[in-house]
Amino acid sequence: MADRRQDSSAQPEHELISLKMSPYSLTARWALRHCGVPFTVTPYEPVVGELGLRLRLWRYTSRPRDVKKVTVPILLVRNAATKQHVALRSTLEIATYAHTLSEIHQHFFHDANSVNAWDARYQRMLAYVRGQLMSDVRANSDLTMEYAPPFLRKHMPTLARWFATIGVGVFTRKYAVESAATSIDHIRETLALMQSILSTQRYLVGDEFTYADLAMAVAIDHIAPGPHSTIHGKRKDLMLKRNITTGFEDVVAWKDRIYDQFYGTDEKHS
Length: 270
Known about the structure:
Layout: E1 13-18, H1 23-34, E2 40-43, H2 50-58, E3 74-79, E4 84-88, H3 91-101, H4 112-139, H5 141-144, H6 150-155, H7 157-174, H8 176-180, H9 184-198, H10 211-220, H11 233-240, H12 249-263
Parallel strand pairs: 1-2
Antiparallel strand pairs: 1-3, 3-4
């Protein structure tokens, strides 16, 4: 594996299209950093940035219909030596790719089938979180402004509120199916499973830190927001009032330990 890094000029360039408030983008940034993959971040603005991103993605696929639904994070991989251009369009794809480039974290995808199963639980938990957050935003007009572009919020607040209201509606419809497919019962079942596993071992899969631990730590941090969460202020207070993790304080404490030990500083925070 080391010979792939001998010629730095032959290494691919990595550009992560990332949404600052997205837990999925946070997961991708963490996985790339953990595996030592250098990357740049291009901030994404929902709605206003979708057309431009869609046009960029057409360059990375031979099947335009694959660009029908645009969501972030997306990792654009450009290899000048081979002329290959690839777009990785899910946190799991990005993390798997990062693992293939890592020279030191060979356990990151130990027992890939088990890790993939935890990714499915991560996706389900965050779909629930996303649905609850959108409910909170629709019920609290002051939260709606968070979904307007910063320039409009600063200089044209009336237009910003109108734009944000449309954006929230588009966002809600875009992910309605995923959000409706899960429930609080599913979340608590996952927490109970984690509680059982973590009562006898430090990590979810095997004896080493894996993507399963990373992903589930991010997911739990968004139903029990801590200092690294992308949920702040009133959104955080509303989520905590749901008391989703009551009875699972040990799992929340495990999440905090994972962050303390492996997260570091998310310098590429956009």
